[in-house]
Design a protein that fits this description.
It is a single chain. With 345 residues, this protein is of the alpha/beta class. It folds into two domains: 228 residues, Rossmann fold; 90 residues. 41% of the residues lie in helices and 11% in strands. Strands 2-1-3-4-5-6 form a six-stranded parallel beta sheet, with helices on both faces. α1 links the parallel β1 and β2. α8 crosses α11 and α8 runs antiparallel to α13. The protein is elongated.
């Protein structure tokens, strides 16, 4: 199966996706990185909101939006590298921490690397008194030194990502590299590097560190190395892809599913869907005929095999209808077909 890899850029405070233009142009012109598709994730970060009907999202909102973007818009990518600048690094860390808190560790297994540029892991002191006294901004609060939310997310990432060894519901090992700007007056090198095991200092201030002007610029050389490592490293954290099930197997599965109590009720199917990967449920076309809806559901699983949807379905049935013979029949069929169970070792 050919790889489809994406590199996702996440901008910082009061910035936009346009800040990544230098990196985007260099990657697109680099034949060594032709396997990558670039993506610039954008989120609102204006100085103020003058519209009374709109609010500025806080970092938790942005983190959840990023996870939705990865899950839905980039669902077909087999591997991802996340690259973040400044506050964007806090967004990425919060996204990882919140996903693990929700027991979604396997969904993060596609992320092969995280690269942070000038991320205020310990907060930023710049104009702190002015920011506290005269400016109320929901994202600025998380930039303050030793903020509780920053500290908790950072601790989770270190313990359950950086130092993790296996993929579980609450852990997912992902290498993280953190770089500081050698003349950055906004985020100090101590804050940018924090206690991540892989760190460095690159030319530039808080903003020019992500403005490489040539392929030889050290910021680009560093990022390119991480992208090539992610490209060449086989990712054995992602479960092996099973063979595509035959149509008659789908029919057998649907027959067993319809034997599950209340499965013909839309309300019960909604309970099942809440325990499946959101991207699958989002694209599912509902149908009054339960058989047609369930057939469409299991057919859609083949497009999202990296999310382990068969395991999710098995867990949902065992949770909602434990020990029922119809559930046992579903699990037996999935196991016999090699669609369900722990990845091969």
């Amino acid at each position: 199966m050919s790889q489809r890899l994406g590199v996702v850029f996440v901008h910082g405070f009061l910035s936009s996706a346009a800040t990544w233009s230098a990196f985007l142009h260099l990657i697109e012109d680099d034949p060594d990185l032709a396997s990558y598709e670039t993506d610039a994730f954008a989120y609102p970060s204006p100085p103020v909101s003058l519209n009374p009907l709109r609010r500025i999202p806080d970092i938790d909102d942005v983190a959840d939006s990023l996870r939705t973007h990865l899950t839905h818009d980039l669902a077909d990518h087999t591997g991802l590298v996340l690259v973040a600048h400044s506050q964007g690094g806090l967004v990425v860390q919060r996204m990882l921490a919140r996903a693990l808190a929700a027991g979604r560790g396997p969904e993060l297994a596609r992320i092969r690397r995280v690269v942070l540029f000038a991320c205020p892991n310990s907060g930023s002191d710049l104009a702190l008194l002015l920011r506290r006294g005269l400016w109320r901004h929901p994202q600025e609060r998380d930039l303050r030194p030793l903020g509780q939310a920053i500290t908790e997310a950072h601790r989770t990432v270190l313990n359950q990502v950086v130092h993790a060894t296996t993929v579980t519901a609450t852990t997912c090992p992902i290498p993280i590299a953190a770089y500081a700007g050698e003349s950055d007056g906004v985020v100090t090198p101590v804050s940018a590097r924090s206690v991540f095991p892989e760190t460095g200092v690159l030319p530039g201030d808080h903003f020019t560190i992500i403005k490489p002007d040539s392929p030889e610029h050290r910021s680009y050389v560093a990022l390119k190395r991480h992208l090539k490592e992610a490209l060449s490293m086989p990712d054995d954290r992602v479960p092996p892809t099973p063979a595509r099930p035959a149509a008659d197997l789908y029919r057998v599965l649907v027959d067993h599913l319809l034997d599950v109590p209340r499965m013909t009720e839309p309300a019960f199917r909604d309970q099942v869907y809440e325990l499946l990967p959101p991207v699958i449920v989002h694209q599912l076309r509902r149908d009054n005929a339960a058989r047609l809806e369930l057939f469409a559901l299991v057919r859609s699983f083949e497009h999202y095999r990296h999310l382990r949807p068969w395991d999710a379905l098995a867990n949902a049935l065992e949770t909602l209808v434990p020990g029922h013979p119809a559930v046992t029949a579903v699990l037996g069929t999935l196991t016999a077909a090699g669609l369900c169970g722990p990845p091969a070792t």
